[in-house]
Amino acid sequence: MVKSVYIHIPFCQQICHYCDFTKFFYNEQLVDDYLTALENEMRTYIPAGKQSMKTIFVGGGTPTALNHKQLEKLLKMIDNHFDVHTCEEYSFEANPGDLDVEKIKLLKSYGVQRISMGVQVFDDEMLEYIGRLHKIKDVYDNIDSLTRYGFENISIDLIYSLPNQTMEHFQKTLQEALSFDLPHYSAYSLQIEPKTIFYQRYKQGKLPKPPEETEAAMYQHLMKEMEKHGKIQYEISNFAEPGFESKHNLTYWNNEHYYGMGAGAHGYLPGKRIVNLRPLPAYVKQANLDGKPVLHTEPIGRKEEIEEEMFLGLRKRTGVSKEMFRNKFDLEADEIYADALSTLKSRKWVVDEGGFIKLTSAGLLFGNEVFQEFLLEDDVTELPR
């Protein structure tokens, strides 16, 4: 049974220079058309009644870029198809400055429990440079309003290793972020992705990104400060007070199934991954035609399931449970990965303790290299179930 759903709202008031997600400039008529198409897709997956969900995550883009009428229509659509009252975690992404009091009241009244805010950096000049519209003051105003109207589960996202960013600059941002004493924080190193403004500047030699050793030092400082402030690192880029870990994101890292709805959304259903059409006109046309705006479906075989169990599970600080791996695949992880584990242990990048395979503090700095070691030979499909 699929117990999680991701719903993509691809509209923004401004396109950030680093973002490669499916996104479009906000246009009132385009949003209206999109919501109609999105509801048709919802009906395809949930044809009748309200389906019980463990987690619902509405991301973007910027879901809170919608006007009040459109936001309420979206919330009603979700409420019509999913039992939000029994949902363990119902999250909305938001940009500082988008959340006026009326939108906050709407979110609260329709059962939204968690707000994830894209703050990125506490520096107005840097915010403008990376293409953000909000100011630091907006963060303070929005968090104050959210708290006043009963939102306790608030997370903020940060980005480090930004162009021209020094260690001292990042330390100041992190200190200001932690001064809110929120229950959850996410922090990501800037990735230069194709088809972004930053990528074009990078290709032209006009993007002065900090050296790798500075980036590593920022990450180590991040881990140290989060621990000092009682925010436990439960995943490579995520920190939380106990009980406030993102249940929806844990769906991904636990390699569990979820619906993906909206333009460019990815879903993971038994035996397959589904990738939706990205271009807005194509998505709207196909969703209105048959409710199935699918670009392609990728079969997920036993080999891929096993690999992803390791790739995703190792992102968690608790690592991969060998017992759960055995129950799921009827295989011993430390047998089929004996060579990989031997290599990684010798480098002190992973440990095997207490029934779990997990990254060490050093291994966290070399995550991608670690994950590559868990690619399997094709003949794994011949292994017994």
* CATH architecture descriptor of the largest domain: Alpha-Beta Horseshoe
- Helical content, roughly? 40-55%
Main sheet? 9 strands, mixed
State the end-to-end CA separation.
21 Å
CATH topology of the largest domain: pyruvate-formate lyase- activating enzyme
Mean pLDDT: 94
Class computed from helices, strands and strand pairing = alpha/beta
Shape: globular
Number of domains: 2
Strand portion: 15-25%
Q: Extract low-pLDDT stretches.
A: none
What is the CATH homologous superfamily assignment of the largest domain?
tm_1862 like domain
Give me the Rg, rounded: 21 Å
* Total of DSSP H or I helical runs spanning 4+ residues: 16
Please report the first level of CATH classification, the CATH class of the largest domain. Answer: Alpha Beta
Strand ordering within the main sheet = 11-12-10-9-8-7-5-1-13
Topology summary:
Layout: E1 4-9, E2 11-12, E3 24-25, H1 28-45, E4 51-52, E5 55-60, H2 68-81, E6 82-83, E7 89-94, H3 101-109, E8 114-120, H4 124-129, H5 136-148, E9 153-160, H6 167-178, E10 184-189, H7 197-203, H8 212-228, E11 232-235, E12 238-240, H9 247-253, E13 259-261, E14 266-269, E15 272-276, H10 280-290, E16 294-299, H11 302-313, E17 320-321, H12 322-329, H13 333-336, H14 338-346, E18 350-353, E19 356-359, H15 361-364, H16 367-372
Parallel strand pairs: 1-5, 1-13, 2-3, 4-6, 5-7, 7-8, 8-9, 9-10
Antiparallel strand pairs: 10-12, 11-12, 14-15, 15-16, 17-19, 18-19
